[in-house]
Amino acid sequence: MTQKQTPYESKLQMGQTFPVTIKRLGINGEGVGYFKRQVVFIQGALPGEEVVAEVTNIKRGFAEAKLKKIRKASPQRVAPPCPVYDQCGGCQLQHLSYDGQLEQKRDIVVQAFEKYTKVPTSLIRNTIGMEDPWHYRNKSQLQVGKAKNGIIAGLYALGSHQLVDISDCLIQHKATNEVTQKVKRILERLDISVYNERKRTGLIRTIVTRIGVQTGEIQLVLITSKKELPRKEQFIKQVQTALPQVKSIMQNVNGEKTSLIFGDETFRLAGKEVIQETLGDLSFELSARAFFQLNPVQTVKLYDEAKKAAGLTGKEKIVDAYCGVGTIGLWLADGAAEIRGMDVIKESIEDAQKNAKHHSFTNTKYVTGKAEHWLPKWIKEGWRPDVVVVDPPRTGCDDKLLETVLQVQPKRLVYVSCNPSTLARDIEKLSRKYEVSYVQPVDMFPHTAHVECISQLILKKGN
């Protein structure tokens, strides 16, 4: 065993340079190749490319390497338009043409289904993309720091504490970029201190900007380490003068040593507590900490696909598990007899109730708790759902929820997923009683490796 090798048998050594052909993309957007049957992940490499790479990490069962040279480039390789693309880590696929991204995202779903299920991959449809895949994100949360030329706002480079300034980001809505740039200048002019993470000194930690894309209303949230904000009135006045589109100026206090952005205390500095946003015919009030989809254009496509998958005739009783503030359920409500939603977060349920009332829906009921608690209770009371909609976090559905669905046996299950691997694993568990009709990938986050899916599952005959 050489000095640099790990205790188990690896075909590669640290620092070794080697040629490899890239077979596919991994779930994080990296190229995947094989050297003497050992799996190697290479960030920035594309399927079909012949490259030279250098080993940077050896782990049990695989190695990681950095791209040194491309001997044969993919025809779908493009020059990334972002000047800090290779530093920031926010996008993983700007070096791949957009048509190529849509193909590869379908392939990432195919790989997950081949690994975990027996579902024919012909049921996985082509990815629904965007007409214009730039400037789509309606919210930015940028850490603030000091550089030689003044205040910067950005993200930490991958695996480091080096802050990369990205306040003119190509995937952020242009209005959020403008607000961030101008707020940085105002903070500089007023000499308001910036938080230093290492020393835990200074005040401004994060600039959070969100736009209601359909309404044009903008909310600015300053995350500070302390409540006292020096030259507060001057700050407010200068923001209102330079940025009249900012309708809500909020402050959130987070003095903890944490990677979480928001602290517990939020209060209004000026303007309204909330901004308005619309999705289709629905309107929503967005408070500083409210969850809302980051790409509203694609959200409409995603929810329309969920509605199609639910196959509504107006008579269905629907359960919206993991309902959040009720967006998916409310999207379906006009085509259903009744919607019942649940979530473990009490504030989300309160928002869902408000949203339903605001839209004059009388066929909705929202409760705090888990579906595995409420579903058996409702069935005992004589209420049985025809359709269950699930939209779980990246970890997938709770095992107890899957068991509950298998016991309750709704005729149809609509699974909204943000992680193909956990989707495929959950579908394999559900396949005892359910058949997959189709899986529809949707590109919610162009230029990143993320892909969302809508899956329609139908109860097998004889159940």
UniProtKB/TrEMBL annotation:
Belongs to the class I-like SAM-binding methyltransferase superfamily. RNA M5U methyltransferase family. It is an enzyme of class 2 (transferase). Residues 11-69 form the TRAM domain. It holds the Pfam family TRAM. SUPFAM superfamilies: Nucleic acid-binding proteins, S-adenosyl-L-methionine-dependent methyltransferases. The active site is at residue 418. Keywords: Methyltransferase, S-adenosyl-L-methionine, Transferase. GO terms for biological process: methylation. This is 23S rRNA (Uracil(1939)-C(5))-methyltransferase RlmD. S-adenosyl-L-methionine binds at residues 293, 322, 343, 391. PANTHER family: PTHR11061:SF45, RNA M5U METHYLTRANSFERASE. One of its GO terms (molecular function) is methyltransferase activity. Its EC number is 2.1.1.190.
